[in-house]
Amino acid sequence: MKLVIISGLSGAGKTIALQSLEDRGAYCIDNLPFTLLPAVIEQMRNFADEYEYIALGVDARNLALQDISSLPATLAAMQMDYEVVFLTASDTCLIQRYRETRRKHPFAKADRDLSEAIIYERQLLSDLVALSTMQIDTGHLSIYELRELISLRVGFQAKNGIPLLLQSFGFKYGIPQDVDFVFDVRCLPNPYWQPNLRSFTGLDTEVQDYLSTQSSVGPLLTQLQQFLDVWIAEFQHEQRNYLSIAIGCTGGHHRSVFVVSQLEQYFRTQQRELLVRHRELS
After folding, report:
1. The pTM of the whole model exceeds 0.85
2. Do residues 9 and 118 touch, judged by C-beta distance below 8 A?
3. Measured between alpha carbons, how far is 236 from 243 in angstroms, rounded to an integer?
4. Which of 9, 64, 81, 241 is most exposed by smallest CB count within 10 Å?
5. Which domain holds residue 211?
6. What is the CA radius of gyration of the chain?
7. Which parts of the chain register pLDDT below 70?
8. Of 154, 188, 221, which residue constitutes the final position of a domain?
9. DSSP secondary structure letter of residue 181
């Protein structure tokens, strides 16, 4: 049995993440005080055949956060495997989400506006952030992507080898956070400079045909596949729940998208569990 603690900033997607784990068969509890956690774990061990995961939702309103520093020692004494997943997003993103939903931030008051409430909550959760084993920025994720990402990273889909997260991105918009490998494919010919290809993406046949005929593309794909075959196996020996691979080009629309799509086809033949994202296209 494994414990998954889901926490994060209000508006970052904690409820969605917890629901996705519940849909996968985890036993979920929201805002349980940590002082009661040992008793719950002992009780749940009687149902280990039915529940492989316990998922605990925690937010800053839980007054038991004052006991957070003792959590690792408590779980170690109980020989409990665990993950602490912290969901975050930029202040700008959170403000936009609250304005769109017209909901009130839990720490907003007459003398504390929305932006100040977000800053205040970050401070309250700082100790939990320090203990987190996994941080996910949900700013670029849709609801469906977050659900799949949580399930993959926690390990629900590890039936056919270690699951893979493949994502394309544009370096001009920043490197994705929390990735294991980052590969730069800006060395490949850029379809952007072909006027008839500029409006297409790496998912379109026109761009794929163009890149497939370039002499540097084939060797790069072959060597990249060989490299990943070797090191994915090594990560799998370390009992990793997932492996994240990011491919970047300048704008994240052509070359990186094409390479990720080629890797997706390659790993599909191995029947691996995959989550594929094209950050700049979404």
Report:
1. no
2. yes
3. 9
4. 81
5. 164-278
6. 21
7. 63-67, 155-161, 237-241
8. 154
9. E
With respect to residue 159, please indicate whether it lies within any of the assigned structural domains. Answer: no
Q: What is the largest CA-CA distance in the chain?
A: 65
- As given in the structure block, the two tokens for residue 12 are 């970052």
Q: Which one, of 151, 163, 114, 166, lies nearest residue 276 by Cα?
A: 166
Adjacency order of strands within the sheet including 27-30: 27-30, 53-57, 2-8, 81-88, 134-137
19-50 exposure pattern, b = at least 16 Cβ within 10 A, e = fewer: bbbeebebbbbeebebeebeeebeebeeeeee
Q: Residues 175, 167: contact at Cβ < 8 Å?
A: no
- Do 15 and 96 belong to one domain? yes
Distance CA 155, CA 165 (A): 12
The torsion defined by the Cα of 169, 174, 179 and 183, in degrees rounded to 10, comes to 60
- Reported as a single tens digit per residue, the pLDDT across 123-169 is 888 888 888 888 889 988 888 888 888 877 776 655 556 788 999 99
